[in-house]
């Protein structure tokens, strides 16, 4: 099996961060990439390892990998753009744009409640066929027919998958785009020349990284706690949110998953492009006007999350640092971003004017920020 050493660009003074990245690579041969930007300029843009499970194909500068929930903010940006243009208001009910969504107790669910995970629409109640998520019309019908798990606005509860479909359909209807990915490509990817996609064409899928679990990795405390909640209540919201349908947990290297539009979970991105999105949110107006940017870091919901089983803070579409936590998004009070299953992470720290993205095809058993990202973040702020 060939070895693929660390490659890319390292700004003077940031060699210690690159060395931590190299240490992680030596300890756990993997495909991974790290990008850190400031004012549109890369401080670090490095990668290493293989993109395939056989370990034969090298990771390259623009290798894209499934970033899972780290792609949720990209959906939120689209909604915030439409709000900035006056196309919609964040306190409007979703049903104003999608009348069918108002069924079964969802008529009052607002756009803001979905963005900050207070809608109560977290998971499908009844068993959903595995292939259903690959059919846009079927997904829309299933989501529209759902009912909240609790009174909308009453409590905070993370929506792992339905979040993306609800907001994607809102964007489609409000903007007139054929689908969410069309809007994303035109209004977010094109202005920044990004390769990120929600639904990768089959001809490009051979260039994607294959994801897989780290062999022998021990589940971190947050995952263990989540597992206990799922076991204690097999029909409860926690279990249903992550396992219904099971295709949400398996088949993520398959053509059907890669080519579908699952905006909360199947965005494919390089570290470079993910970091550039966050850089654009804090250093320019290409994505959002100045007046709209604070929506990214102003807290809109906090508390013990009924789905993640841990205290969480959210702005409109972004996770916020949990004060006193061991694993923080940056060091600034306004840091905002989002973790993805297995360890992918993107965030911006306006107080330090930094954007950060770490992606890997080796999935750890971590709930939020895993130990690899934690080490890289610590090393970064030690040299700032």
Automatic annotation (TrEMBL):
It comes from the Bacteria. InterPro entries: Beta-lactam-related, Beta-lactam/transpept-like, Beta-lactamase/esterase. Residues 30-376 form the Beta-lactamase-related domain. Pfam families: Beta-lactamase (PF00144). This is CubicO group peptidase (Beta-lactamase class C family). It comes from Simiduia aestuariiviva. The lineage of its organism: Bacteria, Pseudomonadati, Pseudomonadota, Gammaproteobacteria, Cellvibrionales.
């Amino acid at each position: 099996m060939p070895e693929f050493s660390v490659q890319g660009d390292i700004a003077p003074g940031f060699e210690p961060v690159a060395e931590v990245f190299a240490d992680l690579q030596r300890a756990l041969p993997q495909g991974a990439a790290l990008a850190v930007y400031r004012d549109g300029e890369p401080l670090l843009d490095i990668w290493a390892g293989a993109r395939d499970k056989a370990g034969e194909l090298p990771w390259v500068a623009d290798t894209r990998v499934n970033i899972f929930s780290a792609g949720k903010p990209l959906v939120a940006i689209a909604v915030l753009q439409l709000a900035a243009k006056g196309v919609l208001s964040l306190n409007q009910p979703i049903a104003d744009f999608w009348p069918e969504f108002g069924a079964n107790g969802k008529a009052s669910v607002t756009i803001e409640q979905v963005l900050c995970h207070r809608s109560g629409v977290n998971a499908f109640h009844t068993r959903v066929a595995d292939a259903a998520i690959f059919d846009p019309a079927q997904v829309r019908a299933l989501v529209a027919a759902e009912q909240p798990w609790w009174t909308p606005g009453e409590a905070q509860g993370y929506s792992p998958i339905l979040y993306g479909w609800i907001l994607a359909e809102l964007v489609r209807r409000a903007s007139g785009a054929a689908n969410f990915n069309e809007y994303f490509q035109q209004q977010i990817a094109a202005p920044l020349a990004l390769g990120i996609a929600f639904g990768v064409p089959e001809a490009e899928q051979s260039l994607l990284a294959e994801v897989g679990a780290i062999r022998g990795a021990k589940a971190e405390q947050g995952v263990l706690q989540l597992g206990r909640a799922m076991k204690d209540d097999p029909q409860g919201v926690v279990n249903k949110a992550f396992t219904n349908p099971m295709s949400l947990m398996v088949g993520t290297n398959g053509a059907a998953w890669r080519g579908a539009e699952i905006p909360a979970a199947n965005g494919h991105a390089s570290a470079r492009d993910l970091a550039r999105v966050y850089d654009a949110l804090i250093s320019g107006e290409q994505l959002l006007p100045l007046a709209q940017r604070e929506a990214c870091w102003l807290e809109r919901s906090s508390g013990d999350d009924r789905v993640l089983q841990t205290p969480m803070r959210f702005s409109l579409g972004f996770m916020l640092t949990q004060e006193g936590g061991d694993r923080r998004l940056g060091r600034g009070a306004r840091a905002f971003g989002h973790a993805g299953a297995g360890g992918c992470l993107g965030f911006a720290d306006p107080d330090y004017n930094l954007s950060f993205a770490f992606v890997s095809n080796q999935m750890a058993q971590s709930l939020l920020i895993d130990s690899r990202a934690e080490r890289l973040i610590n090393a970064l702020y030690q040299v700032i």
